[in-house]
Design goal:
two-stranded antiparallel sheet; 6 helices; elongated; mainly alpha; 4 strands
Length: 182
C-alpha cells in the first residue's frame, strides 16, 4: 500500500507506521464526514495512489487527491499564482467598496444626528475649520512631544469648541480612560 509523502515522512519518524497511518486516516475521514456527510465511496488519490481515504461524491464533484495531497497542491498553486490571486481579491474588494461606502455614510449620518453626539461633531468640525483657516495650529503632544497629534476636547460646550489639548493617539486614549474612571 502506498501512502502520500507526508504520511511516510511522519510515520518514519515515529517508527509506528501502521498505527500512525491508521489514526491519521481516521482523522481525515472524520473531517470529511463533518464537512460532507456520510462516507460512501472508496477513493484512490491520483498523486500518491493512496486508497486510505473514503469520501462522499457530492454534486458530481470528482475528488482527485487525498486530503494531504490536496493541501500540498493548493499551497503550491497559491505560491505560483500569488499576484493573480491578489489582483482577484482587490477586484472583489472594489466591487464591494460601493456597498461598504454607502453603509458607512449611512452610519455616519445617523451618528451625527443623534442628540448626544451633536456637540462632539460640531466641536470637531470647528477645530478642523480653524486649522484650515489658520486660526488654530497643531502643536506637539503635551505629554511626550510626538508630532502626530489629535485634538482632545475636555468639554464640548459651544464656548469651549476651540479649547483643545494636543495629544498623540496613545496619550489621547489614556486621557479618555482617565476621564471615564473619574
Amino acid at each position: 500500500m502506498t501512502t502520500c509523502y507526508t504520511n511516510r515522512v511522519v510515520a518514519d519518524k515515529i517508527n509506528k507506521p501502521s498505527q500512525y497511518l491508521w489514526s491519521f486516516r481516521d482523522l481525515c475521514n472524520d473531517v470529511l464526514v463533518r464537512c460532507f456527510g456520510d462516507i460512501m465511496e472508496d477513493f484512490k488519490c491520483s498523486k500518491c495512489g493512496s486508497t486510505s481515504y473514503k469520501i462522499k461524491i457530492q454534486n458530481n464533484y470528482e475528488w482527485k487527491y487525498c486530503p494531504p495531497c490536496k493541501m500540498a497542491v493548493d499551497r503550491s498553486y497559491r505560491l505560483r499564482n500569488k499576484d493573480r490571486l491578489r489582483d482577484l481579491a482587490n477586484k472583489r474588494k472594489k466591487a464591494n467598496s460601493k456597498e461598504f461606502y454607502r453603509k458607512k455614510t449611512e452610519y455616519h449620518k445617523d451618528y451625527c444626528r443623534r442628540p448626544e453626539n451633536i456637540g462632539k461633531v460640531s466641536a470637531r468640525w470647528a477645530v478642523g475649520n480653524a486649522i484650515k483657516a489658520g486660526k488654530l495650529t497643531k502643536e506637539p503632544c503635551q505629554v511626550c512631544g510626538e508630532l502626530k497629534v489629535e485634538a482632545h476636547h475636555d468639554s464640548y460646550l459651544p464656548k469651549d469648541k476651540l479649547n483643545v489639548m494636543w495629544l498623540c493617539k496613545e496619550h489621547h486614549k489614556l486621557r479618555h480612560e482617565d476621564l471615564k474612571d473619574v
